[in-house]
Write a structure and sequence with these properties.
Length: 240
């Protein structure tokens, strides 16, 4: 629901053209934010401004963020969601598979947040939300690159909290478990069934369930929460 506060706020969601990022963008539109999404292909949901950007390409992010700020105003809320997997056992993992995943998931969040915080510092208000994964906390065999990148986001959020916490800026991590999306649809039926057995909730989560937590972290009720890691995983990672 739109409030006086959210109507003045501009949210940027990376990878908002599909999956979890799209659900987050839809929710923030419903909450009343002015929302921009980055996309390499396709476009964001209705009511959003789509800007073309690759989070691995600093120049394209510079141009995208300038466009968002020019058309919607200074960014107040950034959701670093864009991410990839390149799963294989460590023995078989190429240097390129490792670098590509870390550079997209962790480097991409760094490049996006670094550019978005300028206006937040000026406004003395900001919300930084990083989409990590249960994999980054629990560790998943076959995901050494992905787990390392997602765990790196925790240190990143906590360093930001110490640097910018005094300026009204919070930085938090959301750690989804298994969520219905193109990323999990790639798993074969047998693997999916095995994973479901391990989830106390007995089912995959939805993008909307991640979006609800992002919405709360972005809002005024979460103003005193920073450097936190919020699992949204049906109990899969309990205690990690
Ligand atoms: P999808 O594969 O459905 O979507 C990934 C999104 O990231 C797409 O919008 C994609 O854009 C974008 N993206 C990937 N690489 C880049 C890049 N270099 N530059 C810009 N955008 C890029 O994944 P999900 O929606 O499932 O995942 C979203 C986030 O949630 C990811 O960070 C993922 O790691 C995390 N996550 C997902 C879980 C799940 O079970 N699904 C569990 C835990 C965490 P494009 O369409 O152009 O490829």
């Amino acid at each position: 629901m739109s409030t006086a506060a959210t109507a003045d706020r501009v949210a940027l969601v990376t990878g908002g053209n599909r999956g979890i990022g799209r659900a987050i963008a839809e929710r923030l539109v419903r909450d009343g934010y002015r929302v921009a999404v980055t996309a390499r292909s396709g476009s964001g949901p209705e009511g959003t401004l789509t800007v073309v950007a690759d989070v691995n390409d600093a120049a394209s992010l510079d141009a995208a963020i300038a466009q968002v700020e020019g058309e919607l105003g200074p960014i107040t809320t950034v959701v670093a969601n864009a991410g990839i997997t390149k799963d294989t056992l460590l023995m078989r993992m190429s240097d390129d598979d490792f670098s590509a995943v870390v550079d997209t998931n962790l480097g991409g969040a760094f490049r996006t947040v670094k550019r978005a915080i300028k206006s937040m510092i000026k406004a003395r208000h900001g919300r930084i939300i990083l989409i990590s994964s249960v994999s980054g906390l629990y560790g998943v065999a076959g995901q050494a690159n992905y787990s390392a990148s997602k765990s790196g986001l925790v240190g990143f959020a906590r360093a930001i909290t110490r640097e910018l916490g005094g300026r009204g800026i919070t930085a938090n991590v959301v750690a989804p478990g298994f969520i219905e999306s193109d990323m999990t649809a790639e798993l074969d039926d047998k693997t999916q069934a095995e994973y479901k057995k391990q989830i106390p909730a007995g089912r995959y989560g939805t993008g909307e369930e991640i979006a609800g937590v992002v919405s709360w972290l972005a809002g005024d009720d979460a103003a005193y929460i920073s450097g936190a890691v919020i699992p949204v995983d049906g109990g899969l990672g309990m205690g990690h």
